[in-house]
Design a protein that fits this description.
about 180 residues, mainly alpha
Length: about 180
């Protein structure tokens, strides 16, 4: 038998064998996931200070890691969306905590981190809290920093579209009331 097909078959079998091995998460990933779970439990129990301390403790401090504040705000935004999706109203504590941390941390962030944080807080304000005025401010801040202009513009467009829809519905209701009077 020709050795080339035998080598290829052996190589393919070895490659397939390697694909079936599950990759174990790193210790860092496991610690972050555990911290997120503990923070979610603390938020559900009404203890935002413990949730914040837990997330700060799990923040990466490597040379390539984003600032600790940026990591904490991103985790809080994510937790707020998850909690709100699971049970409406439950994510509001995490959302408020994320917004408060965003105000506190913004002066220390570089331009890219500030833009990404403003975008995340804008989406949180718009989609989770329904506060379009606050969301507009965050989207405009993201545009000012420049790193996320396309996503921030889409957010502003969604807010403008909702505003136009609300105005049109209000005009329609007013005209129906006049007609029925």
């Amino acid at each position: 038998m020709n050795t080339l097909p035998r080598l290829l078959a052996t190589g393919l079998a070895f490659a397939a064998l390697q694909l079936n091995l599950p990759a174990a998460p790193s210790a860092r990933t496991t610690a972050v996931l555990r911290a997120r779970g503990e923070a979610a439990a603390a938020l559900s129990a009404g203890n935002p200070a413990l949730a914040l301390a837990t997330l700060r403790g799990a923040a990466s401090r490597g040379p390539l890691a984003t600032a600790e504040d940026t990591q904490v705000i991103a985790a809080l935004c994510s937790l707020a969306r998850e909690m709100e999706a699971a049970s409406p109203g439950d994510g509001r504590i995490a959302a408020g905590l994320a917004l408060n941390e965003g105000k506190r941390a913004r002066p220390k962030m570089n331009g890219r981190e500030a833009a990404l944080t403003a975008l995340a807080l804008g989406e949180l304000s718009e989609l989770t809290l329904g506060d379009h005025d606050t969301a507009r401010g965050h989207y405009e801040a993201a545009l000012g920093a420049g790193a996320t202009s396309a996503a921030a513009r889409r957010g502003l467009d969604r807010i403008a579209w909702r505003g136009a829809l609300i105005s049109a519905k209000a005009s329609e209701n007013t005209s129906l009331r006049r007609r029925n009077s």
